[in-house]
């Protein structure tokens, strides 16, 4: 059951209270697929401009990521600029330039169509829908989004939600989309729109999994320095879905463990800017942090 990850492949300019980095590689598809690559060999779907570094595409390949579905188009890569406040959960988008993503209507490579798990990472919900319709019969469809699409295309998002099993979103996005102020109420309202599981990401406070008759909380790694919170959400999704693809089983127990692996992967990516931490990360470190997480909540 191949995992296929759809998402943005981007240049990001990131400003935190302590540093600024211009045009570093980012994107929902980038973070998610790199995190998943520590568990399985995902395929990716997305588009980059001719300015996207070949070195990054080679890094994807070295990590076992199938890049057949990554289109390289004449033009500029998607660009996003954001600033973080003293609280890493506070993020302001300064600029979003869709560039080559604007008219992106991919035709899925034939070997992707039989995917067992599909992740519709954060891109325009109409594009997410157009891609989802090309898969034959996935066992699990997950999706993510960002406040821009909730603001601009709420109807498309709600329609797409009906076709999705797992919805990943942060607390602010869940409240915005459901128009509720209480997080649990908001999650339950969205559960009625189709998904069987809502994964509410709460930044440094961990994540809450809400199912129809299942609730699970996972803490975030207590770290004393967050260098760059970008990609934490997508890396969570990558760890979560990569683990499920590896164990090839979708029980409640698997979802709980997947959530811990999601939290583990998010905890690593924020230790450095962009995708830097994934360049040195080892499976041994992942194992050790998983055990540490277990100890943290055992009483
Ligand atoms: P996260 O921090 O996990 O929410 O994801 C951040 C990544 O999402 C960044 O690397 C951005 O390039 C990407 N991103 C931001 N806004 C959008 C958007 N509107 N559509 C697609 N990708 C986006």
User: Which fold does the CATH topology refer to?
Assistant: UDP-N-acetylmuramoyl-L-alanine:D-glutamate ligase
Computed over alpha carbons, the radius of gyration is 17 Å
Q: What is the rounded distance between the termini?
A: 36 Å
The geometry reads as globular
- Detail the poorly predicted runs: none
Structural class: alpha/beta
The ordered string of helix (H) and strand (E) elements is: EEEHEHEEEEHEHHEHHEEEHHHH
Strands side by side in the biggest sheet: 5-4-1-8-9-10-11-12-13
**What compounds are bound to the protein?**
adenosine monophosphate
Number of helices: 11
User: Which homologous superfamily in CATH is the superfamily?
Assistant: Ribokinase
Binned strand content: 15-25%
Largest sheet: 9 strands, mixed
CATH class: Alpha Beta
Binned, the helix content reads: 25-40%
Q: Kindly report the average pLDDT value.
A: 95
Number of strands: 13
CATH architecture: 3-Layer(aba) Sandwich
How do the helices and strands line up, and which of them pair or pack?
Elements: E1 3-6, E2 10-15, E3 20-26, H1 28-36, E4 43-49, H2 54-62, E5 66-73, E6 78-84, E7 91-97, E8 117-120, H3 125-132, E9 140-143, H4 147-152, H5 154-161, E10 166-170, H6 171-178, H7 183-191, E11 197-201, E12 207-211, E13 215-218, H8 232-247, H9 252-269, H10 276-280, H11 283-296
Parallel strand pairs: 1-4, 1-8, 2-6, 4-5, 8-9, 9-10, 10-11
Antiparallel strand pairs: 2-3, 6-7, 11-12, 12-13
The chain binds adenosine monophosphate.
């Amino acid at each position: 059951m191949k995992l296929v990850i759809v998402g943005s492949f981007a240049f990001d300019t990131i400003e935190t209270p302590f540093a600024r980095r211009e045009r570093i590689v980012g994107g929902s598809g980038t973070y998610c697929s790199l995190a998943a690559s520590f568990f399985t060999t995902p395929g990716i779907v997305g588009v980059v401009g001719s300015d996207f570094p070949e070195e990054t595409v080679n890094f994807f390949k070295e990590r076992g990521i199938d890049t057949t579905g990554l289109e390289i188009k004449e033009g500029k890569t998607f660009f996003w600029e954001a600033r973080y406040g003293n609280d890493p959960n506070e993020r302001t988008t300064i600029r979003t330039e869709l560039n080559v993503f604007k008219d992106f209507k991919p035709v899925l490579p034939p070997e992707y169509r039989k995917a067992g798990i599909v992740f519709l990472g954060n891109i325009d919900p109409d594009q997410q829908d157009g891609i989802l319709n090309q898969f034959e019969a996935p066992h699990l469809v997950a999706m993510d989004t960002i406040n821009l699409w909730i603001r601009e295309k709420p109807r498309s998002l709600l329609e797409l939600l009906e076709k999705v099993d797992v919805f990943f979103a942060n607390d602010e996005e869940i409240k915005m989309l459901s128009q509720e102020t209480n997080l649990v109420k908001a999650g339950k309202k969205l559960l009625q729109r189709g998904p069987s599981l809502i994964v509410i990401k709460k930044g440094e406070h961990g994540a809450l999994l809400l199912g129809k008759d299942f609730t699970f909380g996972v803490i975030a790694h207590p770290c004393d320095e967050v260098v760059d919170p970008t990609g934490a959400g997508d890396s969570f999704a990558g760890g979560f879905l990569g683990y499920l693809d590896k164990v090839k089983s979708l029980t409640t127990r698997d979802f709980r463990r997947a959530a811990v692996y999601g939290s583990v992967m998010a905890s690593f990516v924020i230790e450095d800017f962009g995708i830097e931490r994934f360049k040195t990360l080892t499976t041994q470190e992942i194992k050790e942090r998983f055990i540490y997480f277990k100890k943290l909540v055992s009483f």
